C-alpha cells in the first residue's frame, strides 16, 4: 500500500454502482481549419493521459464499460483507457449536451456493482458530476474538472443519489504511475 493512500484503496468499496467521470485529455488548439468535433488529442495529451491511466491502474481502478462522446478527442481518450477497461467502449450523443436522466439510464443494464466510465467535455462533465451529486446542473461551476481529470462516484445511478468518492487531478494520477509501494 502506498503511504497515505489507504483511503483510495477503500474508495472502491462503495455500495452500489460506481461512475468514473473523465474529462478528455489535452487536445490540439482550436483553429478555423478543424471543426471542434474533429480536434484530436495532442501528442502531449496522449503522453500525459497514458501516464494517468497507468496511475489509475496502480490504484486498482478498472472499468466495466466506457461511454464516450462521439467527438474525436473524447473517443481517443476512451481508447487510451483500454488497459483498464474490461468491457467495451460506446459513443453516445448524450455526452455532447446537458446531461439528464437518459444518460444515467445508460448504466441501468450493468448491475448494481458495475463501474461505468463516462468520457466527455466541459461544461457537460461538470454538469454530470453536479447532477449525480446534487440532482441539479447548476453547481457545475463549483466543481473543478481539468483536462484528463477523473471524478469517482458511488451510489444509486440517478440524479442526486451518488456520493463523491474521489476527485483526481491529472497531475496526481500521473504521479501515481511512478509511485512505488511501501514495504
Structure keywords:
183 residues; alpha/beta; Rossmann fold; 6-stranded mixed sheet; disordered N terminus
Characterise this structure.
The chain is of the alpha/beta class and 183 residues long. It has one domain: Phosphoglycerate mutase-like (Rossmann fold, 3-Layer(aba) Sandwich). Helix content is 31%, strand content 18%. It is built from 6 helices and 6 strands; from the N terminus they run αβαβαβαβαββα. The chain has helices at residues 6-11, 43-58, 72-80, 101-105, 124-134, 170-178; strands at 17-23, 65-68, 89-91, 115-120, 150-155, 162-168. It has a 6-stranded mixed beta sheet with strand order 3-2-4-1-5-6, sandwiched between helices. Helix 3 links the parallel strand 2 and strand 3 (89-91). Helix 2 (43-58) crosses helix 6. The longest helix has 16 residues, at 43-58. The chain is globular, with a radius of gyration of 16 Å.
Topology:
Layout: H1 6-11, E1 17-23, H2 43-58, E2 65-68, H3 72-80, E3 89-91, H4 101-105, E4 115-120, H5 124-134, E5 150-155, E6 162-168, H6 170-178
Parallel strand pairs: 1-4, 2-3, 2-4
Antiparallel strand pairs: 1-5, 5-6
CATH topology: Rossmann fold
Radius of gyration: 16 Å
Order of helices and strands: HEHEHEHEHEEH
Tally of individual domains = 1
The chain-level structural class is: alpha/beta
Low-confidence stretches: 1-12
Relevant CATH superfamily:
Phosphoglycerate mutase-like
- Specify the CATH class: Alpha Beta
CATH architecture: 3-Layer(aba) Sandwich
Number of strands: 6
What level of helicity do the residues show? 25-40%
Give the neighbour order of strands across the main sheet.
3-2-4-1-5-6
What average pLDDT do the residues reach? Answer: 89
How many individual helices? 6
Amino acid at each position: 500500500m502506498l503511504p497515505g493512500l489507504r483511503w483510495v484503496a477503500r474508495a472502491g468499496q462503495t455500495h452500489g454502482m460506481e461512475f468514473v467521470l473523465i474529462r478528455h485529455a489535452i487536445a490540439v488548439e482550436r483553429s478555423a481549419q478543424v471543426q471542434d468535433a474533429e480536434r484530436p488529442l495532442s501528442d502531449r495529451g496522449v503522453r500525459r493521459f497514458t501516464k494517468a491511466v497507468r496511475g489509475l491502474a496502480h490504484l486498482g481502478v478498472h472499468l466495466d464499460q466506457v461511454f464516450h462522446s462521439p467527438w474525436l478527442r473524447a473517443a481517443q481518450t476512451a481508447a487510451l483507457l483500454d488497459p483498464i477497461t474490461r468491457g467495451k467502449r460506446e459513443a453516445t450523443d448524450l455526452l455532447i449536451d446537458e446531461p439528464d436522466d437518459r444518460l444515467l439510464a445508460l448504466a441501468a443494464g450493468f448491475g448494481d456493482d458495475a463501474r461505468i466510465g463516462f468520457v466527455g467535455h466541459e461544461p457537460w462533465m461538470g454538469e454530470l458530476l453536479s447532477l449525480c451529486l446534487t440532482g441539479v446542473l447548476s453547481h457545475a461551476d463549483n466543481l473543478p474538472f481539468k483536462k484528463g481529470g477523473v471524478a469517482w462516484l458511488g451510489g444509486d445511478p440517478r440524479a442526486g443519489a451518488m456520493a463523491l468518492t474521489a476527485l483526481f487531478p491529472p497531475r496526481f494520477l500521473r504521479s501515481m504511475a511512478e509511485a512505488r509501494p511501501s514495504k
